[in-house]
Input
Amino acid sequence: MNTIREAWRSFRSARSTSGFALLILTAAMAATTITFSVVDGIVLRSLAFEDSDQLVIIGPQNRTYSPAEYFAWRDRSDAFVTLAATNVGPMAHVPSDTGVSYVRAWETSASLFEVLRVRALLGQVFTSANEIAGQHLVAVISHEVWQRYFGGDPHIVGRSIRMGDRRRSEQPADLFEIVGVMPKGFMYPMHKGRPQVWIPLVLEGSRQGQSGAEVIGRVRSGVKLADAQSQISAIHAAVAAAEGRPRREDRRPVLVLLHDSLVEHVRDWMLLVLCAVSLVMLVACFSVANLMLAQTSRRRRELAVRASLGASPGQLAAALAAEGLMLSVTAAVMAIAVAWWGLGATKAALPAGIPRVEDIAVDFRVILVTLIAAIVSAVIFTIVPVWQAARLRPGELLSYGAMTAAPMRPRWRATLVTMEVSFVSALLVVSTLFVGSFVRLVRTDLGFARSNVATFELGNVQGRTAQVIEALETTPGVISVAELSSVPPLVQEAYGGTETRMRIRAAGSPDDALAVTATTYLVSPAYFETAGIQMLRGRTFAESDFPRSVAIIDELAARVLFADGRDPIGARISLTASRPPLTVIGIVRTVSPHGPEQAPGTQLYLPRRVDAGETSQIVVRTSGRASSVVPALRTSLARVLPAGTPPPTVRSLQDAFRAITAGRRANAGIMTAFGIVVLLIGASGVYAVMASSVAQQHHELAVRIALGATGGRVARGVLTRATAYLLVGLVVGSLIGRALSAVFASLLFQVQPSDVSVYATVTVLLLSSGLTAAALPAIRAARIDPIIALRTE
Output
């Protein structure tokens, strides 16, 4: 108890130093707490299902399989407790303050609830008897829908909910009876659009030929994943052989743990952020260690007097350790409060599509880790001061008379500041690499214009597509409008959708290898101009081309299909044996429709007739920012769309690009913030060390100036010492940063861990900030008045 009181007394006697140390530690621990809570909730923590390590998907993620494959796996494999099939469903129409709101429904086999081992909170889940057409009009709703849209009605079971396509208001919606409510927090699937309603997936009978089911299963206890994989692969091959289909490597089923499938696209960069915040914590510890060392140096006479009065070295060491522990625990408590307060903002700032955001919390597990980090931090930044206190020699120290501070060897201070600079430079190297990756990413030419382009989906509006296009073309700020059948570039990757892929080959070519699988678009003549896709050779479509068998291919397809040297323009390509060959009339640039980090693939363009009587995608090119024209587009659409038609969601391609690159943007932003923080902490550490060194050498410097040393020479000596600390730390830190970057090299984009420009940038940043911080102590040293200094001593 006396030790705690003495620690508190010491804490109050040096308020400025203790307050600054507390600020540094609190900021670093708050960043660590928030970062760990995010990484723990998303990546490290197990899924909230019973024995979740037994849950697998037959992937890769988003891969769908035919009903025949699902039934074969379910009925023939004994490696699983059971399997379940799921598929995206219609939109559920729920009552709201605005009339009707729409939430995503998901079609699933009844076995899903057995696979996940969850039960309904109210009512019951549907059963396999509901997987038959005519018996399938039942639904299970989420706890959120029950509370938000039905006011938590305890009699919700038995009520009805409508399901239908909100884009096709002319089609009547079906009524589904609500049979159950799921527990709070239940969510599946976790990687797509937060489904809130579950309805039976009908695969038998009329839908037997339908494809597109994702498959999830629970492996039996004791069965190895490799054995289950072997069974699945063998059954898949048998089904393909029975149907007379060739075995395709790209369709090979792969068992993936459900947890891994959810976090595989965020695990690496989140672990990188966790490593980065650990470096921030280490930099803060070394900075505080230097502050405590300087404070201990100023108190050496006080400690010596206490030792001469009977205090043992252990008691003196315990007092300093208690001060450090009190400082660290206080910072931890404040950091937990800051993290608790800022967690909501942190969740909101996470990129869209991050799974398991609802599992992020500052709970007992996070608090425990923070407190452990506080204790470890206290050990790190007090070990040197405590060790020095244990070696105090009172007689030697008291012999220095009235000097304000006894001299001390600077090796520990130099070591600590050098280590601090090392970790600062290591984090700066990593941060600069990832910021550079993001800069190169956003500057990548995707082959089309993403600026000033808006897009939306237009449902079947019964022959009014031409009117819609005409109304949009006359909208102020619109340059051109085009229509296509598939989702435009970037939109599928950002928001979902389907694309058509067709196998094409050069007609009449004896070499069957001259074939490609191309993403196929049906487009109106204005599409290439509107999307900013460059025509390299030939011509674009004309209105008269629709009845004709013509096509436009991209340059990559042209190189592969006509590798024999023939001129692609005027040549013919074949799609299937049942369709006549197509004449190539143009070649356009290859585009990267899925963003800069995926291979571009090949594209095939066919002419599309306006008012084809089906859902289409509209692309609009604007003279300025697309977002500024969106209100005018909505006004024009309202004039021509049928009354009661829900307005389409208008998005810009730039927004879609931001959604695709959101993870990298978040990573670059976090690493930039960490880099700035450690640079400031490092600069303050250099300043504290040099200022303390000048203060301790005040008498020595005064004597040197009195003996003829100029102020400039004294200042250069201070700056030279600071430069030595910075250079040594820079070399060591660059090696650490290089090694750490190599571990996460797969996350870099068009940047190598050995990029010389990165290390040059870090060198400039570190030296400029460090020498700026050391300049003020150097100026103070140069301005020492020897007469005043010696008179004071």
About this structure: DSSP finds 24 helices and 21 strands in the chain. The CA atoms of residues 159 and 697 lie 83 Å apart. The mean pLDDT is 80.
